[in-house]
Write a structure and sequence with these properties.
Blueprint (H helix, E strand, L loop, with lengths): L2 H6 L8 H9 L10 H8 L3 H29 L5 H11 L2 H6 L4 H17 L3 H19 L11 H9 L5 H5 L18 H12 L5 H22 L8 H15 L18 H14 L8 H16 L11 H22 L4 H14 L4 H16 L3 H14 L5 H15 L46 H12 L7 H15 L4 H10 L1
Helix pairs in contact: 2-7, 4-5, 4-8, 7-8, 7-9, 8-12, 9-13, 12-14, 13-14, 13-15, 15-17, 17-19, 18-20, 19-20, 20-21, 20-22
GO molecular function, one term: histone binding
Protein name: Condensin complex subunit 1 C-terminal domain-containing protein
InterPro entries: ARM-type_fold, CND1/NCAPD3
């Protein structure tokens, strides 16, 4: 069977031209009824099996072209290499397919029906068929020329990618906490709203066989999405890039029980593997073919921010332990992103840390959690970005907002009790904390543990940067806010009474 036999099996001649034309003119915005004649064809055809076979065939077809291209380039001389490249590309492209009467518009119109139905309808089988159609559509995009011949449509692509939201049923059935539906009070209420809530709740109750089917389908779609994105460019399609990032980050939330996601690959038949693969695709999106890398990283960091805000989990159906695991994964991902992309990722990560700090609430216990997240992020930054970020944190201690000055002081204090960074410091691996970090003596929430303060200073940092950090604390002794002033004085008292010899020497050299 060749590719033309494959497309002929869809009997696209049964789709009227006017019907196809109307869908294209409406940009596939909604699902319409299939023509009666085509419905009769579907009654005798396993369309899901046909689309799955077509997806696998096209992938092998394109991979064969890649292998032929590589082999020909190795054997050919530099004089005739360009002709080999041209013939290889032209033979397996939309230009060649359309010139051989493949009805691309009818095929895309047909897929749009299954894709949009999968997104909008609630029946499990319809949603699965939508995923299969999504996978087939992604493989069509991987064929060279998909943008030139308008196989790619931003609206249809958005519908297709949103079919991956079915991953949320895996999260609901994997033991994560889910609050009970709120009962409405008052005499007047809409019965239809009640029905919708009950139906949405029922969607989460998957049989084990259905759950396995969803995992398998999502695994296939993510594999083919990665395959497609390495051949198809999203450059200039910011909306499509953003919806792709949003859905991938939603999938990363499927793993919230094990912190070892990046240290070893999870089993392929598990939701954890879907999260692992989604993180991999997110890193792959950070290449120039999909647009400005700095902007892409900014998109990713913005959408990932909720994973770092363990001090603000309102509206998220996560236990505190699950929130910490997702935070650990997010920190590890940032480290991997910095290792892979280097400088182009700096601006996005820098902005992420700024936003996290600004969002830390003015409440002692929540502030402690937020400061710890910031310290963990600082630990995985390369020195140049680390230094730049620390300077901004020191400037935060002079903010006009009291809560920001207190947050800045607590971060500076944590840095004083950590290991000093310098230009030769390697990018640190991130190891999730197994226990909550000890509280620093002298803080408002830990005044009674004064005897343990010096024990935290296991290794004193180099004093070139320490002097600037200390200067930041000293500058708050005359703060107009009594709270900030008390915080700075408490930190100083803690440092002066420290049992660490290096810190004591530093204090003696100052005073």
């Amino acid at each position: 069977m060749d590719v033309y036999d494959l497309f002929s099996k869809f009997e696209l001649d049964l789709l009227p031209r006017d019907w196809v034309k109307s869908l294209w003119e409406d940009d596939f915005s909604e699902a319409v009824d299939l023509p009666a004649e085509y419905e009769m064809f579907l009654e005798n055809t396993d369309i899901s099996e046909l689309m799955s076979t077509a997806s696998s065939f096209i992938r092998e077809w394109l991979e064969t072209a890649d292998n032929t291209f590589s082999a020909a380039n190795r054997k050919s001389s530099s004089l005739n290499r360009s002709s080999v490249n041209t013939s290889t590309v032209d033979s397996k492209s939309w230009q060649n397919l359309i010139s051989n009467n493949v009805q691309h518009k009818a095929l895309v119109a047909l897929l749009s029906i299954f894709i949009v139905r999968g997104k909008t309808e609630k029946q499990f089988e319809v949603k699965c068929l939508g995923l299969i159609a999504t996978d087939f559509y992604l493989m069509l995009l991987a064929i060279p020329g998909s943008q030139v011949f308008h196989i790619f449509n931003p609206i249809l692509y958005s519908h297709a990618v949103e079919n991956l939201k079915i991953c949320s049923v895996l999260s609901r059935t994997s033991g994560s906490s889910k609050p009970a539906p709120k009962k409405r009070r008052g005499k007047h209420h809409d019965d239809d709203d009640y029905d919708e809530e009950e139906e949405s709740d029922d969607e989460g109750d998957l049989l084990p066989s259905d759950r396995s089917k969803v995992v398998k389908l999502l695994n296939i779609v993510l594999t083919d999405l990665l395959f497609t994105l390495r051949r198809f460019q999203l450059k200039g399609q910011d909306d499509s890039l953003l919806i792709t990032i949003q859905i991938l980050i939603l999938i990363t939330r499927l793993e919230h029980s094990s912190a070892s996601l990046f240290s070893k690959s999870p089993p392929q038949n598990s939701p954890s593997y879907l999260a692992y693969k989604a993180y991999k695709i997110l890193i792959d999106l950070g290449c120039p073919e999909h647009g400005d890398v700095e902007n892409t990283v900014m998109f990713i960091m913005r959408e990932m921010m909720s994973g770092f805000l363990i001090f603000d989990q309102k509206g998220l159906k996560l236990t505190p332990k699950e929130a910490v695991v997702i935070k650990d994964h997010s920190v590890s991902f940032v480290r991997n992103l910095l290792t892979y992309l280097k400088d182009p990722a700096f601006k996005g990560v820098y902005t992420l840390i700024q936003h996290i700090i600004v969002k830390i609430p003015d409440k002692a216990d929540l502030r402690t959690k937020g400061v710890q997240v910031v310290i963990e992020l600082l630990d995985v930054l390369p020195y140049s970005l680390y230094s730049h970020t620390v300077v901004w944190i020191m400037s935060l201690c002079h903010s006009e907002h009291v809560k920001h000055r207190i947050t800045g002081l607590e971060i500076v204090t944590k840095l004083l009790y950590g290991n000093e960074r310098n230009l030769d410091s390697p990018l640190k691996p991130f190891h999730p904390l197994k226990k909550t970090a000890k509280k620093i003596k002298g803080s408002e929430e830990d005044d009674e543990d004064e005897d343990d303060g010096g024990a935290i200073l296991t290794q004193q940092p180099d004093f070139s940067t320490t002097k600037f950090l200390l200067g930041t604390i000293f500058s708050r002794f005359k703060d107009v806010s009594s709270t900030v002033k008390a915080k700075a004085l408490a930190i100083l008292a803690n440092l002066v009474s420290s049992n660490n010899k290096n810190m004591r020497h530093e204090m003696e050299s100052i005073f």
